Amino acid sequence: MSHRIALYSPTMSHWGGSFQYAKAVVEALALLDPQTYEIGVWHTADAEWKALVERLGFADHDIDGYTIPPQFVAVAKKILAALEQAENAEQRKPLLEQLRPFSELTVLQQWQPHVVICPQMAGQHYVQGAKQVGVIHDLMHRYEPRFPEVGTTFEITEREKLFATMVERCEAILVDSRTGQEHVLESYRRARPQQVRIVPYAAFGEVVHCVPRQPQFAVPKKYLFYSAQFWLHKNHSGLALAAAELAAAHPDLRIVAAGNMAQNGYEAFAQIVREHGLEKVFILPGYVPVEELAWLYAHARGFVMPTYFGPTNIPPLEAMALGCPVAVSGIYGMREQCGDAVLYFNPADSHDIAQAMTRLWTDDALCATLVEKGKARSRLYSVDAFNKNIVRLVQGLCA
């Protein structure tokens, strides 16, 4: 008997880590025996999705191309009418989400999958009769609600509804670490330990195993690197304040900060740069493709990640795998993930960040030690280990 496994992901390439994670789960499904498992992937029209699904030979379903079935037209018209009355994006967002299932779920239900995997937090969909797999990357709306990207009343309400429903309806919920598991179990009393499965992140091959390419912009011979969208919780401001402390003693200090600058943390960062005259210190290329990202990791003096969010993060694994010394916030599950292979600092203390940066910038022996420890540590989080976790999960659900 063939088991039908449906993966549903409305992610797009510009989503960053959630898109990368969803694609990694699809790659893992390719290791299942095609005689026993039939895989279907529901995805957006993003070209990277199309190429991946075609390469793996899975059933290909473009969720952006569906039309609303006739039996749902009346309901859809009511939602469309409400959309016309909506005054802002916050009011429109839940209405748009209400429209999406009319097209997507009907087709998913007709396919009659045995297991439905939704490998991202946004866009969970439930199919009657199927075993559901969800993912909770973080519960930062509970642990770090001071950041507006997760802490608005609307965002908290939406996340609580999402995760409470996931706990009720999912056979398995994937988390990144023991810390992530503890967060779910202490936050949602109905969650069960055997339901919340630890599948650690990996140094995914999209970055680690690509062919690196030197960026088009001018890269200094020696630089520190940080790759993150300019959200407030990514703490570029803390990085800038640390750089201001070091600039006089280290006039050669250069920091490449790659990432989308159209986010809510950019202006505060830019103001610090202006006030302290750090325009020559920071190089801001914006978004860089994975090939250039890999090159920047491999050639950096060190990778510095002053984030406030966890439990764990993918970029330190990528940096370690590519031979880049790492300094990172000592928060939540980061010590569980990185062990003694990185330097830790308090992200709320710019002086502490500056001390870690100084050690990376000046101590050759330390950097050589961190490179070796980092490579060894990253092997514990290999793509093979991630794939085996996903395969065992699906096989267990179908047994």
Tell me the layout of helices and strands.
Layout: E1 3-9, H1 17-29, E2 37-43, H2 47-56, E3 59-62, H3 73-85, H4 89-111, E4 115-117, E5 131-135, H5 140-143, H6 148-151, H7 153-169, E6 172-175, H8 178-187, E7 196-198, H9 205-208, E8 224-227, H10 236-246, E9 255-258, H11 266-275, E10 282-286, H12 290-299, E11 302-305, H13 315-321, E12 326-329, H14 334-338, E13 343-345, H15 350-362, H16 364-379, H17 383-398
Parallel strand pairs: 1-2, 1-4, 2-3, 4-5, 5-6, 6-7, 8-9, 8-11, 9-10, 11-12, 12-13
Describe the structure.
- By secondary structure, the protein is an alpha/beta fold.
- The chain is built from 17 helices and 13 strands.
- The chain has helices at 17-29, 47-56, 73-85, 89-111, 140-143, 148-151, 153-169, 178-187, 205-208, 236-246, 266-275, 290-299, 315-321, 334-338, 350-362, 364-379, 383-398, and strands at 3-9, 37-43, 59-62, 115-117, 131-135, 172-175, 196-198, 224-227, 255-258, 282-286, 302-305, 326-329, 343-345.
- The strands form two sheets. The chain has a seven-stranded parallel sheet with strand order 3-2-1-4-5-6-7, with helices on both faces. The protein has a six-stranded parallel sheet with strand order 10-9-8-11-12-13, sandwiched between helices.
- β11 (302-305), α13 (315-321) and β12 (326-329) form a beta-alpha-beta unit.
- α3 packs antiparallel against α4, α10 (236-246) runs parallel beside α11 and α10 packs across α15.
- The longest helix has 23 residues, at 89-111.
- It is globular.
- The N and C termini lie close together (11 Å).
- The model is unreliable at 66-71 (pLDDT under 50).
